[in-house]
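Hello again, I could really use a second opinion on something today. I've dropped the whole record in just underneath, so have a look.
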Amino acid sequence: MKHKIVAVDEESRTLCVSMIDGDLMRKYPMVQQKFTVTPIVTQGHEQSCLVKLSVEYEKENENVPHPHEYMELAAIMNQAIARHVAKNA
């Protein structure tokens, strides 16, 4: 599975990524993820962040199920981004 960064907005801390290759594209010809990072300070005054993920996709036809496996992978990517941002904040 290959992805391409299609937009980065430093001000809003947003990253948009589109899937451009892979087996999943046979069932979902369009998949785009949008990651938005919001810095937060915890009650213990530690720096952290909240990463919001939205996924937009198009199914090949109405018989194709929702992409639950892809969503699990997206959640793992979301956690990795949150750790990276928190470490490098």
